[in-house]
Each structure stands twice: as structure tokens, then as C-alpha cells.
From TrEMBL:
<keyword id="KW-0472">Membrane</keyword>
<dbReference type="InterPro" id="IPR050297">
    <property type="entry name" value="LipidA_mod_glycosyltrf_83"/>
</dbReference>
<dbReference type="Pfam" id="PF02366">
    <property type="entry name" value="PMT"/>
</dbReference>
<feature type="transmembrane region" description="Helical">
    <location>
        <begin position="296"/>
        <end position="313"/>
    </location>
</feature>
<feature type="domain" description="ArnT-like N-terminal">
    <location>
        <begin position="34"/>
        <end position="235"/>
    </location>
</feature>
<keyword id="KW-1003">Cell membrane</keyword>
<protein>
    <submittedName>
        <fullName>Glycosyl transferase family 39</fullName>
    </submittedName>
</protein>
<dbReference type="GO" id="GO:0016763">
    <property type="term" value="F:pentosyltransferase activity"/>
</dbReference>
<dbReference type="GO" id="GO:0009103">
    <property type="term" value="P:lipopolysaccharide biosynthetic process"/>
</dbReference>
<feature type="transmembrane region" description="Helical">
    <location>
        <begin position="349"/>
        <end position="366"/>
    </location>
</feature>
<feature type="transmembrane region" description="Helical">
    <location>
        <begin position="207"/>
        <end position="225"/>
    </location>
</feature>
<feature type="compositionally biased region" description="Basic and acidic residues">
    <location>
        <begin position="499"/>
        <end position="508"/>
    </location>
</feature>
<keyword id="KW-0808">Transferase</keyword>
<feature type="transmembrane region" description="Helical">
    <location>
        <begin position="81"/>
        <end position="102"/>
    </location>
</feature>
<dbReference type="GO" id="GO:0006493">
    <property type="term" value="P:protein O-linked glycosylation"/>
</dbReference>
<dbReference type="GO" id="GO:0005886">
    <property type="term" value="C:plasma membrane"/>
</dbReference>
<keyword id="KW-1133">Transmembrane helix</keyword>
Length: 522
């Protein structure tokens, strides 16, 4: 078997492991519950323009994740694994990207090591099966930077095909998570071109065809959304993009050095071998020995420093933001390994042991996350609700927002979310309440599901009314008369009247048939 075939088999095995891990845990809250449900609702409603949470417009991010997620759910059914297939596919894309580009700029041995290092990292096996936008934009940023870099390294005139692929990747990056899909590749490439004195080549890019491709792919959704919602641009770009970057009142405030230990954990144990590449490479010719050419080495370090530096500026920091630096980390670590231990007598055994330890660690952490999600989520009460509630019944959410409940029950109408909304508009922080009432400002009719607590008293008089509340919520805050049906691990289910005998024509929600009726009635 050739070394190339071994590399592809190893990558395939690691990606299959990723798919297996994706099937072994319930949805994590809030992110996975939120984004998986938005994708499901897009499929149910047939509204492919407007991402919606509980039927309310949700314009925090562009819709590529939800478009692809809806297609996956339509193909493989409404389940957590199908929702996770979208980030898993993009993680696979990043894995292939690392192997293919490393093969072009270094030796086959370095390319194999780089791919396996990435594929055994917690970043790949964890973030690669987590339902949010981070792996999508990271993969397309990687494709964009490498495509343009290969175009510029082609010669005096950039390679048009690679450049056009870069423009297309920027468009998909913008559709994944907004302006950073264009800004981050631009930042990295601008610094690199100036540093390596290649900036004049920018004028020789296929600008007409490249911009046309970018515009045709990226712009239609933004234009249509602005036409339907006049405040869309100011909210998405002003509040959610620039506001989050420059503001100090959003969630997850972290110190400036937060991403240094975060990257060490995401890329452990391979991060150690990146340190061997701080020194400028001796070889200047592309592919010489197990090194990389100086322009490629510079690109990798500029890529890492620019993106980590960019995300270290705002007060709010999340681990997934630095996933775009995984490709250069993998390449540098592989080169460092080959130069440090590549000719050691027991090199293969040591590498295999480290890879195995990394995989076992990721599997253990996946199980820990699964248990945490089971305690935090609503999967247990969702089975009961799906089988006992009718399609016309109303579900009220009190205390907190159960992001995953509509996904598990496969609800066909929004929940009624009960809070003191007038007071919250004056005092709500960066949380789920703000997500809902700001979304309702775009569409007043959709915002009717946001009700005040007095609605629970009138709902008591009607059959077919259900209430979900977190177990941590004091029972005294639920009006007398509601009957508790089930107390789950983290949430409780209540009904408005004595349990009705199930009529012959009664049909539960689609989630009952999907999960299995007997399981739902336990």
C-alpha cells in the first residue's frame, strides 16, 4: 500500500470516528439546541430566507449552517447526528485541505503527519461535531487563505483557478458567519504579501470573474433579507458583528491571553512541536528536506498571530473563534515533528502512542459532555410530551428557554414563552431573552408568542395546555392548578387538566413516532 493510500485511509478512519462520536450524546445547550432547532424549523416552515427561533426571526448569523442543516435533516431524519453532519463535513474538508496543501508545500511525510495531528486533536474530534457556525467559517477561511496563497506562489502572475476558488471560499465564509469570512483571509494575506514583497501581484488577480463569483454566491441572501426587513443590515452588521467586537457588555469576558491555553488544549499534544518552528527555516526552496519554504513558513505564523491577535482584542472570547488557525498549526507541528523525531528509531511507535492518547482523551471528554448535556437538556420530558400532546396543543416555557425541546418533539407550532417582557426590555443582558425580543422587533406577528405570566392562569381553564419549567425554578412560581406530569433530570413537565384518555384519532407530535412511542411514555 502506498503512503498516499495510507494517509487517505487514516483520514477516513478519523472522520468515521468523528461521525460515531456525533451520535453518542444529546444536544448541548444552548448552542446546539438553538442552531439545530433553527435548521429544523426552516425545514418545517419552508421559509429558507429567514432563520427562526421559536418562529421568531433570528439574525445573529447568516444562514449557510441552517440551509445545509435543513437538507441533512430532510435526508437523514430529525436527530442530533443529522444536525451535526454539517460541521462534521466541514471538519472533513479542513482535514483534506491540510493534507493536500501540505503535500504541495512540503514532503509526503509532513503531509501525513499534519493530517493525523489535526484529525486526532480535540479541536477536530470535538468542535468538528458541534452544531454551530465556527467549524464552517474556519474551514472556508482555510480554503480561502491557502487558495490565494497557492495562486500567488504560482509565479509572477497568480494562478487564476486557485484565485477563483479563494473568492468562492470567501463567499461561503461570509454566508457561514458574516464579515470575518472575508476580513480574516484579507488580513492574513495582506500582511503576508506586504512582508514578502508580493503585493504587486494583487493587481494581476482575476478580479472581474472573482468578484462576480463572490457576488453571485454571497450577496443575494443579504439583499433579499434587507428588502424584507429594513433594519436587517443595521442589526446584523451593526449590533451582531461590529457591536459584539467592540462592546464590553456581552457574554464570555476573558483576559487577553485566553486563547494561548485554549489553543494548547485544542491541539494537545501536538502543540508542543509547533515551538520547534519559531525559528526561520534554513531551507529556502519549496519542499527541501522536511522543511517548508520561507514564504510558507511566514504565511503560517502570520496566519496564527493575526487571527489570534484579532480575536484577543474584544472582551468577549469563545474557544471556537480560533478554529481558523488549525491548518497552519497542523503544518508547523508536522514539520517540527519530522525535524525533531522524524528519523528517530522509534518515531512511529511514539507518534502512534501520542495519537492514541489524544483520541482516547477526546472520547472521554465526549462522554463527559454527553452526561452534562443529559442533565441540562429536555430529552427525557420531550419523549413524554411528544406522545401525549396533540398537534394543536400549546406548550408554555417558563423560567428558562428549552432550546432543544421543539427539536426532540418535532413541534409544528412555536412555544409560548412566558416572562415579564416589558421589564426585561429595560434590563435584559446578553441572553436568550434578548435573542427573542430583539427578533420579535423584526416581525410583530411572530412575537405574539412572547407572553406575560398572567397567560398561565387563563391557560389553566383549557385542555391541551402544557408547561415546561427548569427544576431549579421554585414551584411556587407556577400558578396553582397545573399538574406535574414528569420531573426529568433538569426540567419538569406540567399539564393544565387531568390526563385525558387518548382518543382513537389522537396523534402525538412527530417526535413520538421518531423516538418510539414506548420510550416516550416511560
Amino acid at each position: 500500500m502506498t503512503n498516499s493510500k495510507r494517509a487517505w485511509l487514516a483520514m477516513g478512519a478519523l472522520w468515521l470516528l468523528l461521525l460515531v462520536l456525533a451520535a453518542l450524546r444529546p444536544l448541548s445547550l444552548p448552542d446546539e439546541g438553538r442552531y439545530a432547532e433553527i435548521s429544523r424549523w426552516m425545514l418545517v416552515s419552508g421559509d429558507w430566507l429567514t432563520p427562526r427561533l421559536d418562529g421568531i426571526p433570528f439574525f445573529h448569523k447568516p444562514p449557510l449552517l441552517h440551509w445545509l442543516g435543513s437538507l441533512s435533516l430532510a435526508t437523514f431524519g430529525v436527530n442530533a447526528w443529522a444536525a451535526r453532519l454539517v460541521p462534521a463535513l466541514h471538519a472533513g474538508l479542513m482535514l483534506v485541505l491540510v493534507y493536500v496543501t501540505a503535500s504541495r508545500v512540503s514532503t509526503p511525510a509532513v503531509a501525513r503527519r499534519a493530517a493525523v495531528m489535526l484529525g486526532t486533536s480535540l479541536a477536530f474530534l470535538g468542535a468538528g461535531q458541534y452544531v454551530n457556525h465556527d467549524m464552517l467559517v474556519a474551514a472556508w477561511i482555510g480554503v480561502a487563505i491557502w487558495s490565494f496563497a497557492l495562486a500567488f506562489l504560482h509565479g509572477d502572475r497568480p494562478h487564476a483557478g486557485w484565485a477563483r476558488l479563494g473568492f468562492a471560499a470567501c463567499a461561503l465564509g461570509v454566508l457561514s458567519k458574516g464579515l470575518i469570512g472575508l476580513a480574516l483571509p484579507g488580513l492574513v494575506l495582506l500582511i503576508w504579501l506586504l512582508w514578502t514583497r508580493q503585493f504587486a501581484k494583487v493587481l494581476r488577480l482575476p478580479w472581474f470573474s472573482g468578484l462576480a463569483l463572490f457576488g453571485l454566491m454571497a450577496l443575494p441572501w443579504f439583499v433579499l433579507a434587507q428588502r424584507h426587513y429594513p433594519d436587517f443590515f443595521s442589526y446584523l452588521f451593526g449590533v451582531q458583528q461590529f457591536g459584539r467586537y467592540t462592546g464590553t457588555t456581552f457574554n464570555n469576558p476573558r483576559p487577553w491571553w485566553f486563547y494561548l491555553p485554549a489553543l494548547a488544549g485544542l491541539f494537545f499534544p501536538w502543540i508542543v512541536f509547533v515551538a520547534n518552528q519559531v525559528k526561520v527555516p534554513v531551507h529556502s526552496a519549496q519542499g527541501a528536506s522536511d522543511s517548508i519554504a520561507r514564504p510558507v513558513w511566514l504565511l503560517c505564523w502570520i496566519w496564527i498571530v493575526a487571527i489570534v491577535g484579532f480575536f484577543s482584542i474584544p472582551a468577549s472570547k469563545i474557544v471556537g473563534y480560533v478554529l481558523p488557525v488549525l491548518p497552519p498549526l497542523a503544518l508547523l507541528a508536522a514539520v517540527g515533528w519530522q525535524q525533531w523525531l522524524g528519523r528517530h528509531a522509534r518515531e512511529r511507535a511514539v507518534f502512534g502512542m501520542l495519537a492514541l492518547c489524544a483520541v482516547v482523551g477526546a472520547i472521554v471528554l465526549n462522554e463527559v459532555a454527553a452526561r452534562h448535556s443529559a442533565r441540562q437538556g429536555t430529552a427525557d420530558i420531550a419523549f413524554t410530551l411528544a406522545c401525549q400532546a396533540g398537534t394543536a396543543d400549546t406548550v408554555y416555557a417558563v423560567g428558562e428557554y428549552p432550546y432543544d425541546l421543539p427539536f426532540y418533539t418535532q413541534a409544528v407550532q412555536p412555544m409560548v414563552v412566558v416572562q415579564d417582557w416589558p421589564a426585561l426590555r429595560r434590563a435584559a443582558g446578553d441572553n436568550w431573552r434578548r435573542e427573542l425580543f430583539e427578533g420579535a422587533d423584526f416581525e410583530a406577528a411572530a412575537g405574539r408568542v412572547l407572553q406575560t405570566p398572567d397567560v398561565l392562569v387563563t391557560a389553566l381553564r383549557r385542555p391541551g395546555q402544557w408547561l415546561v419549567a427548569p427544576n431549579a425554578m421554585p414551584a411556587g412560581q407556577i400558578p396553582a392548578g397545573w399538574v406535574q406530569v414528569q420531573r426529568g433530570a433538569g426540567w419538569s413537565l406540567w399539564r393544565s387538566a387531568p390526563e385525558r384518555p387518548e382518543a382513537a384519532e389522537h396523534k402525538g407530535l412527530p417526535g413520538c413516532q421518531h423516538q418510539g412511542g414506548e420510550q416516550g411514555r416511560q
